[in-house]
Amino acid sequence: PKASIAEERKAPSFPVRELTYWLDGDKKVTELKEQIMLELERDPLWRVSDHPNLTLAETRERAMKKIRRLADQATSRPLEETMVRMSIISVVDPGFWTRFGVHFGLFFGALQGQASPAQLAYWMEKGAFTMQGVTGCFGMTELGHGSNVAGLETIATFDPNTDEFIVHSPTITATKWWIGGAAHTATHCAVYAQLLVGGKRYGTKTFVVQLRDTQTFELMPGVNIGDLGKKMGRDQIDNGWIRFTHVRIPRSHMLMKHTKVMRSGEVIEPPLAQLAYGALIQGRVSMVGDSANVAKRALTIATRYASVRRQFSDGTPGALESKLIDYPIHQHRLLPLMAQTFAMIFAAREMNTSYMQLMSQLNELGDSKGAAVDAAIKNLKETHATSAGLKAFCTWMCLNIIDQCRQSLGGHGYSAYTGLSQAYSDFAVHCTWEGDNTILTLQCGRYLVATALDALKGQPLPENLAYLKDAIKSGMVLETKPFSGKSAAEVSSLAALKAAWSSVAANAIVNAVRDFKAGVAKGLSKDNAYEFSSASRLHAARMHTYTYLLHRFVAQVEQSPAALRPILTLLAQLFGAHSAVQHSGEFLQAGFYSGAQIEALKVFVNDACAQIRKDAVPLTDAFDYSDYIINSPLGRYDGDVYEKYFELVTSLNPQKPVPYFDSLIRPLLERTNESQPGPELEIDQE
User: Do the beta carbons of residue 165 and residue 204 sit within 8 Å?
Assistant: First the structure.
């Protein structure tokens, strides 16, 4: 195995280290990443090889020890270092990353995004940033409500006599549910509840509610908390439920950066309430990058194993069996996933830049009015829609990559010790939290329809929807000009693929607008017309997001160093072409490609897989994950998979007497088949 993988690294077509620097951003980030990986590997507290054998209680306790260690580092080290550290930890120990992120990302993020400057300073002084005196959780989801935040049932009623809010769970379905950190850890909660003042509802707002006494850790009066127990994955996080029974909090514990409640009971609402939701996009943006990072690990394991695992031969006596990676079908199995992963890497990079620009724009607004606010709202809507689509399709994509890589390991993929079964269980929640993927996709689709309708009225199209220009000019009657090229090289050029995907996305949006208008024509309300067109909206969002991924991939290729451009170009072509083949019906329906041209695309995909196969291992090496991060004997850098796999399994499962042998196995083996006589019957005595 060692020789098998060594030969894979003899002649890469690109400088591996230069690609690592390009993917990480620059050389300094790579060196910092490698330093952090080494620190974690050498710290006994961060041992990960025994995770499959830990109990629920042991898993949670170890996570808490890590929190104690990392809390000081996170608040004392530079932000850049902390961000790199957390991106690595999200791959090493995603459950811990969640538990840690509940406080620093969700709870403190709510304070940053929704507290007034004075309130933020107050909670900072209380220790909310350093986790000294305050440990927070995020109370949005309820037993009966998740994605529909506007429908949350928890109520916060203002009492003008005492200048307090009364937080209450009026029904069983109002119970806060899935609240990370609630079961064991949190002293405070950022609670999302309906604001009720003078008998009038003002929508869902955020309130800081103390859950436990910070000295005794006893529950506060009116607060009931329970543990949700074992989950599909991420058992490091102590998810719990919370019920409030007329819990009183000071008026100042409502976060009032946007909506304000005065001592008199007057409610002052912001002119644009949607600005309050800008901070909530961050979680979705981070999941695009997380999808890329987790996919990199899965592909490293599967690709390296495919380069050392030998199976079958041509029958020549004494000949070595063939490597899995040499079989064309195995190349088709893994290498399009490699292209998808690069697409996610670059989309995450651009999405993060867009989000940072948006937050800077929102923070600079102040009391601005007019054009500045209009521009900010437009940017907010576009960033929200793009992040919603990317979060959905990138997390779906990553989950599929994990499982396809797991299956490619054969029977070994089913082992908890080879790294991908738990990865699947841990990652699956990404398709649900921070917005259910289907709901987010529909939100993206609604934005696409609304933007097209606005463009028909003369509003300018955003850059990401520039491909709708011809459709808008024709009044949403799209006539696609068929592509003229015939050869595999012509149909698979980046220019052709960009035009093809733009055509398909435009066609999907035109159809969604048509269905929406049909709903309106039936007399449906605007919201019901959107529901009427939900299937076509979801499809439009899918086509738009794939188009965005390809366009961003190509943009990054064009900016890349010359030495990297050939391999990145090939990967971008494979992403665009393979995705087109997977959705070939859409291209035929749109009229861009013919059946013969789709066949030419298939020829290109075959050729591209064969070419990229030569660089498969070097590409995973460029991801630059140490063996500690990979945490799988089958994905080892040196290829020594069988020795290390055997050592790991035997060391964690030493031979012991079977504890239930005498009570269960022996009686089973020693039982007799003699039947016991029944009672003597009177009729037999006659």
Answer: no
Catalytic residue among 39, 434, 490, 680: 434
User: For the CA atoms of 146, 148, 150, 152, what is the dihedral angle to 10 degrees?
Assistant: -30
Quote the tokens at residue 244: 């409030």
Cα–Cα distance measured from residue 580 to residue 332, given in angstroms and rounded to the nearest whole number: 15
Contact call for residues 290 and 430 (beta carbons, < 8 A): yes
Neighbours of 322 (CB within 10 A): 15
With a cut of 90, say whether residue 237 has pLDDT above it. Answer: yes
Strands 164-168 and 155-159: antiparallel
Point out which residues pair with 197 in neighbouring strands. 200
Q: What is the pLDDT of residues 304-358, one digit of tens each?
A: 999 999 998 877 877 888 999 999 999 999 999 999 999 999 999 999 999 988 8
| Helix locations, 560-683, DSSP H | 565-582, 584-590, 595-613, 616-622, 627-630, 641-652, 666-670
Alpha helices (H) in 413-436, listed in sequence order: 421-427
Structure tokens at 210: 């103390």
pLDDT band at 683 (very low <50, low <70, confident <90, very high): confident
- 312: alpha, beta or left, given left = phi > 0 and alpha = psi -120 to 50? left
Distances 16 to 21, 94, 516 between C-alpha atoms, Å: 9, 27, 49
* Alpha-carbon distance values, 658 to 54, 520, 648, 667 (Å): 19, 69, 21, 14
Question: pLDDT for 449-500, tens place per residue?
Answer: 999 999 999 999 999 999 999 889 888 877 778 999 999 999 999 999 999 9
| Nearest residue to 630 (alpha-carbon basis) of 417, 431, 426 | 417
As beta bridge partners, residue 223 has 244
DSSP state of 490: H
434 is catalytic: yes
**Token pair for residue 303?**
């690709």
Separation between Cα atoms, residue 587 and residue 494, nearest integer Å: 16
Strands 136-139 and 188-197: parallel
